[in-house]
Amino acid sequence: MSVDLMPRQDETSTRREIINLLRVVGPLTVGELGERLHITHVAVRRHLTSLERDGLVTSVQQRLPMGRPTRVYSLTEAADNLFPKRYSTLTVELLDFLNETDPALVDAFFRRRGEEMVQQLRAQVNAETLAGRVEQLARVQQANGYLAQWEQDEDGAWVLKEFNCPVHLAARRYPQACTYELESFKAVLGTDNVERVECIARGGQCCRYRILP
């Protein structure tokens, strides 16, 4: 009898769903993952064991106010490589070279990129209402690999969240990448009342923008 050592496509898909959930929601227990994915705890543990073996997931024992301690699972730094990145190490090295030559060149590069970003986004973010434009922007960013979501908070502000940063390597070293993204969003949304309140490059779980009219 032959044994297929390759994971089936449905298993691979479930593992990817687990990875995406841990990225978007943050640390979760076996029970929480099972509830969200509608699969048994046994199945969740099997997938988590595989992901831990691959170095993509880690776990810690967490004490709860009531009941027994429970194990909570989260992504490792290695899992970050599974999400789209547009700036390779080589590109960061090129930015380093520009910075050593003349720091103003780095700022000029990101300013130019921001201007091009505005032009590209305006073709797709053009709804009459702010709510419509926020929704369109979230959809565009989702299609571009940012794992984007949007919602309205209890204060009536719109919130745009990006759980992946394709420019993460560059943004960690050069904050201009984040600065010009913020300015681009202000331009296409048609309001200066856009505030970035969380940033992946600065250790946040997501890049979170709060938007008011």
Strand content: 15-25%
Shape: globular
Tell me the count of domains.
Answer: 2
Would you list the SSEs in sequence order as H and E?
Answer: HEHHEEHHHEEHHEE
| Overall SS class | alpha+beta
Q: Approximately how much helix is present in the residues?
A: 40-55%
Mean pLDDT: 88
Q: Quick one: CATH superfamily of the largest domain?
A: Trafficking protein particle complex subunit 3
Whole-number radius of gyration? 20 Å
* Tally of alpha and pi helices: 8
The rounded distance between the terminal residues' Cα atoms is 66 Å
CATH topology (fold) name of the largest domain? Muramoyl-pentapeptide Carboxypeptidase, domain 2
Main sheet attributes: strand count, strand direction, barrel closure:
4 strands, antiparallel
CATH C-level class of the largest domain is Alpha Beta
| Low-pLDDT residue intervals, each spanning 5 or more residues | 1-9
User: In total, how many beta strands?
Assistant: 7
What brief labels describe this structure?
8 helices, disordered N terminus, single chain, Muramoyl-pentapeptide Carboxypeptidase, domain 2, Arc Repressor Mutant, subunit A, 3-stranded antiparallel β-sheet, alpha+beta, 213 residues, 7 strands, 2 domains, 4-stranded antiparallel β-sheet, 16% strand
Structure description:
The strands form two sheets. A four-stranded antiparallel sheet has the order 4-5-7-6, covered by helices on one side. The N terminus is likely disordered. Helices cover 49% and strands 16% of the residues. It is built from eight helices and seven strands. With 213 residues, it is of the alpha+beta class. Helix 4 packs across helix 5 and helix 5 runs parallel beside helix 8. The protein folds into two domains: 67 residues, Winged helix-like DNA-binding domain superfamily/Winged helix DNA-binding domain (Arc Repressor Mutant, subunit A); 123 residues, Trafficking protein particle complex subunit 3 (Muramoyl-pentapeptide Carboxypeptidase, domain 2), CATH 3.30.1380.20. Strand 4 and strand 5 form a beta hairpin.
